[in-house]
Every structure is written in structure tokens, then in C-alpha cells.
Amino acid sequence: MLFCAKIYCLAFLFTSSGQYAHYVFNSIDLDRNGSLSFEEFVANLSILLRGTVDEKLQWTFSLYDINGDGCITKEEMKEIVTAIYELMGKVPEGCEEEQAIKEKVERLFEKMDRNCDGMITLDEFIECCTKDESIRRSIAVFDTIF
Questions:
Q1: SS3 for 84-133, per residue?
Q2: Considering the entire predicted model, what is its pTM?
């Protein structure tokens, strides 16, 4: 059974979540063929529902690492943050919204980019997230769903 990207995006047709849905789909489409196999679906669902904190953070990192090169750039972070704003109905249309997104990305990089090289590695991401109580709580929410 294959689940295509177009069908996945149709599930979000009447929301402003199309771009976020695209990024989520790409992060779970492990072989990047544009379709989800049952195995890909189950593997990702298993991580999100029953995975360890590190596994969930690795999955989240892969969502933010849009091009899959093993690091998150400011541009990738900006794209994901923008997609999250759109998902929440805060469509960035003006200079004020764009500036808010840019500032959010800068704050995240100040916090996560430990060696200040302009990229966030998986190790930096996990280290920062595991030390942040609010992030740990938000990940723990998935533990109580099922």
C-alpha cells in the first residue's frame, strides 16, 4: 500500500498547512520516492508514539533538515518556522511578520548553534532540546495519546 504526497496534502486542503504537510511528508518518506510504503508509515508512527526522547528528537531534526545533509541552516529553520506560523493561521504577509520569523530563527540559532558556525548539527539539536524543559514536556505529550 502506497500513500502518495498528493493524497497526503489533500488531507490538509482547507487549511494553511500545505507547506508544513509537505515537510512532514518528506521527513517520513525515507526513500524520497514521493510515496509512503506501509513500512515507512509504521516506522515513523512507532517513533512518534513509542520512541525514546532521542528518537523523537532525531525525527524532529530530520523534519527541520529539509535537504537531508545532516545540519539545519538558518534558511531551513526559516522555512519550517514560516510553515508552522501558516499552520497556526498566522500567515506571514508583511514586513512585521517576516521580521518576527527572522527574530525567532535568530533566537533559536543563538540557543542551539553552540559553535556558532551557522548550522545546527544533530548533536547540538539534541543537547539543546534535552536541556529545555518546555521541549521535553511537549515531546512527552505524545506518550499519553495512546
A1: HHHHCCCCCCCHHHHHHHHHHHHHHHHHHCCCCCCEEEHHHHHHHHHHCH
A2: 0.79
